[in-house]
Amino acid sequence: LAAFRMTPQPGVPPEEAGAAVAAESSTGTWTTVWTDGLTSLDRYKGRCYDIEPVAGEENQYIAYVAYPSDLFEEGSVTNLFTSIVGNVFGFKALRALRLEDLRIPPAYVKTFQGPPHGIQVERDKLNKYGRPLLGCTIKPKLGLSAKN
């Protein structure tokens, strides 16, 4: 279950925006795909089951979306988050969208193997203690050469 705070574009009803978020973050796409007829997508579709206005905020709503567990690859955080938040934030029917809450069923959580060792091993390797460990991806578009 996911809760999205959304601000629809002017003229877009919140129900339409909520349905679009559910579709775009599960099986929907902006164009016709030839593979659509190969599999019944109904069992994989996200469904917007409730929309509530945000108190004190004009034109903001919480859209509650339920996803079937079969939509996601077992044990894959990457697949889970790519599906739910990977492409939906650029959706034109919305002026703004933010994932507010995510509830993951215990049966799905149990499919994650976890790291092969704990944080202490990582801290020992890096000789870093008493602070958070952060990482990032260095991208060439930041001005570094391939050699750097």
From TrEMBL:
UniProt-listed Enzyme Commission number(s): 4.1.1.39
CC per GO annotation: chloroplast
Localisation per UniProt entry: Plastid, Chloroplast
The Ribulose bisphosphate carboxylase large subunit C-terminal domain, residue ranges: 118-148
GO molecular function: magnesium ion binding; monooxygenase activity; ribulose-bisphosphate carboxylase activity
A Pfam family that the UniProt record links to this protein: RuBisCO_large
Cofactor binding: number and manner: Binds 1 Mg(2+) ion per subunit.
Known partners and oligomeric status: Heterohexadecamer of 8 large chains and 8 small chains; disulfide-linked. The disulfide link is formed within the large subunit homodimers.
Family label: Belongs to the RuBisCO large chain family. Type I subfamily.
Name under which the protein is recorded: Ribulose bisphosphate carboxylase large chain
Organism of this sequence: Acrobolbus flavicans
Lineage: Eukaryota, Viridiplantae, Streptophyta, Embryophyta, Marchantiophyta
